[in-house]
Amino acid sequence: MSNATHTSTTKSNGAYIPLRYKLLFSYLILVLTPVIVIGSYSYVSSVRSSEEHTRSNLEIAVKQIGSNVDYRLADVIRGSDDIFTDQALSRILSGYYLDYEKYTITTQYIMPKLESAVNLPILDTKLSVFLSNKNISEFYYISEFYFDDQNGKGQETQGRQYSIFHMDRIVDRDWYKTLPMTYEAKTWKQIEDDVEKGGISFLRPIINYETLSPIGLINMNVKLKDIFYDVDFTKLGDNSMLFVIDGNNHLLYSSSRTDLNPNLLSVAKDGFVGAPDDYMQIKQPITNMNASIVAWIPNSSFQENSEQVRNLTILICMVSLIVMTIISWVMSRYFSKRFMKLIRSLKAFKEGDFHKRMVVPGNDEFSQIGDAFNDMASNMEKLIDEVYLSKLEKKEVELQVLHSQMNPHFLYNTFSSISRMAKLGEIDKMHEMVRGLAKFYRLSLNKGEMIISIDKEVQIIQSYVDIQRIKFADRIIVEYDIDEETLGYDTIKFILQPFVENVLEHAWYDDEIHLFIRVALEGEEIVMEIRDNGIGMKEETIEQVLDPSEKGVGYGIRNVDQRIKLQFGKSYGVSITSSIGEGTTVRIRFPRYAK
C-alpha cells in the first residue's frame, strides 16, 4: 500500500496559549468584573452609610450635650422663678418701712426667701438682688480669699451666696443700659468681672405686679464650667473640639485637647466663623440661652471607619477572588482535559490510527462530540479499508496482467528455438531445451503466486540461462554473485529474466557475451544488478526504454519497472546506465520484503 503524505500548515500569529489558560483568563475576567463593581459599590455605599451613621451619632451626642446644658440652665432659671413669681415678695420689696420694721421684714421674709432661691439650683450660685427701693437695707457677703500654694494666686471662695444691693450701683453701667427690663425678659450675659472669673450671669427684672413696672433686678451668677459641665470633647472623640458661642458669635466656652493646634482655638476666640476644611461642624442651639454648642470633628475620624470598611471590603473581595479563581481553575482544567482527550484522538486519527476511539462520559456537548468522532472514525476506517482493499485488488490484477504478458513473449521465443532445432535435426538439444523449459515453468508457476522468494527468482534465472546456453552453445558466459542473506526475502517473480533476455537479443558485440548477475543488500534495500559487456545503448534509447508512454522498444524492461512500483512504491524500480562499446548495467531496487 502506498501512503500519501499530507502536509498540514498551522498559521500562527503569536505564542501558543493553551485553552486551559484562555478559559481561566476568561473566567477570571467574568469573576473580577462583578467583584470589582460590586466591591466598589459596596465600599462607596458602606463608606457613605458609615459617614451618615457616624454623623447621625455625633449629632445625637451633641444634641444630648445641649439637652444636659439646657437642664442645668433651666435649674438656675427655676431658682430665679422662686423670686420672680412671688407676688408677696414683690409687694414687700416695693413698700416703705420704719427701721424696726425693716429688720423684721428682712430677717423673717426677705433673707429666707433669697436663701431658698439660691439653694434651689443644684449648682453653686451667687444671687444678687438689686432694688430701686432704698428703704430696704443692703445686705451682702464679703468675698473671702485663700492663698493657692500651687500657683501663688489668690482664689475666691466658692459656695452659695446671696446679697441685696441698691440699683444706683449699676444704673450707670453700660451692660445695664442695654438690658431689657420687660416682664418676660431673661438674659444670660457676662457682666462686670464674669469674663475674668469664668462666670456668667442670668439677669431678669423684679416686677411690681400692681403696676407691672420693674422694681429691681435678679442676678444669678454661676461658673461656666458648671453650666457647661457636659460640654466635653471626649464624648465625640479625642481630636474633636467643642465650643459654646453666644448670639453674637463670641466664644463663651471651649473643650479640646491641650496639644491640639493652638491656631484653631485662636481662630474661634477672635471671631467664630466656621470649621476648617479638614473638620466637620455640627451646631446645636441651646434652648434656654441665646447661644449654641458647636462641635468640630476631624474628617480623619470618618476616614478611620472608612478604612475599616475599605479593609473589610478588600478582604471580602480577595477571599471571593481566591475562591472563584480556584473554582475557575478547576473548571478550566476539567474542560481542558476533555478537549485534550479530543485533540489526542484527532492527532492519532491524523497519524493513521483509525482504530482510536473516544470514551466521553456524561450527556453533554462533549459526549456528543465524542460520539460524532467515534462514528466518523468508524466510517472513515470502513471507507479506507474498502479503498485500500480495492487498490490492492486493482494492483493485483495489474500485476497479473503484466505477468501474463511476460509468459507468452518468453514462450514464443523458446518455441521458435525448438522449432529451429527440429528443422536442423538437433534432437538432443531440443530434448534438453524442453526439459529446461519444463523446469523453468515448474519454478515460475509457483501455484499462481505473484510473490516468490529471491531464492526461487535466482533459480528461475539460472534455469533460463541454462535454456539459452542450449540455444547459443558456449557463447554465453555468466557469473553469479548472490548474497545468501537475501535469499530469505521475497520479491515479485520474473524481474531478472527480461533483462537477460534483452541482453541476448540486442547486446551482442562479439562472438561471446559476458553476463554478471549480482543480488546484494544495501541498507534497507535489496539490489539486483545485471551487467554485460555488450554493445551498449545511447542515452536516448535508455529514456525510451523507461518511458511509460513509449509503446515500442523496451516493453519487458518497462513491465518490470511498473510491477516493482505497483508493489513497493514509486521510489523503487529500475535504473539503467550504459556506454557505447562498453556494455550496460541494470540496477533493480526494492525494499526488504517478506510475506
TrEMBL record:
<keyword id="KW-0472">Membrane</keyword>
<protein>
    <recommendedName>
        <fullName>histidine kinase</fullName>
        <ecNumber>2.7.13.3</ecNumber>
    </recommendedName>
</protein>
<keyword id="KW-0067">ATP-binding</keyword>
<feature type="domain" description="Histidine kinase">
    <location>
        <begin position="495"/>
        <end position="594"/>
    </location>
</feature>
<keyword id="KW-1003">Cell membrane</keyword>
<dbReference type="GO" id="GO:0000155">
    <property type="term" value="F:phosphorelay sensor kinase activity"/>
</dbReference>
<dbReference type="InterPro" id="IPR003594">
    <property type="entry name" value="HATPase_dom"/>
</dbReference>
<dbReference type="Pfam" id="PF06580">
    <property type="entry name" value="His_kinase"/>
</dbReference>
<dbReference type="InterPro" id="IPR010559">
    <property type="entry name" value="Sig_transdc_His_kin_internal"/>
</dbReference>
<dbReference type="InterPro" id="IPR036890">
    <property type="entry name" value="HATPase_C_sf"/>
</dbReference>
<keyword id="KW-0808">Transferase</keyword>
<dbReference type="InterPro" id="IPR004358">
    <property type="entry name" value="Sig_transdc_His_kin-like_C"/>
</dbReference>
<feature type="transmembrane region" description="Helical">
    <location>
        <begin position="312"/>
        <end position="331"/>
    </location>
</feature>
<dbReference type="InterPro" id="IPR005467">
    <property type="entry name" value="His_kinase_dom"/>
</dbReference>
<dbReference type="InterPro" id="IPR003660">
    <property type="entry name" value="HAMP_dom"/>
</dbReference>
<keyword id="KW-0547">Nucleotide-binding</keyword>
<dbReference type="Pfam" id="PF02518">
    <property type="entry name" value="HATPase_c"/>
</dbReference>
<keyword id="KW-0902">Two-component regulatory system</keyword>
<feature type="transmembrane region" description="Helical">
    <location>
        <begin position="21"/>
        <end position="44"/>
    </location>
</feature>
<keyword id="KW-1133">Transmembrane helix</keyword>
<keyword id="KW-0812">Transmembrane</keyword>
<dbReference type="InterPro" id="IPR050640">
    <property type="entry name" value="Bact_2-comp_sensor_kinase"/>
</dbReference>
<dbReference type="GO" id="GO:0005886">
    <property type="term" value="C:plasma membrane"/>
</dbReference>
<keyword id="KW-0418">Kinase</keyword>
<dbReference type="GO" id="GO:0005524">
    <property type="term" value="F:ATP binding"/>
</dbReference>
<feature type="domain" description="HAMP">
    <location>
        <begin position="333"/>
        <end position="385"/>
    </location>
</feature>
<keyword id="KW-0597">Phosphoprotein</keyword>
<dbReference type="Pfam" id="PF00672">
    <property type="entry name" value="HAMP"/>
</dbReference>
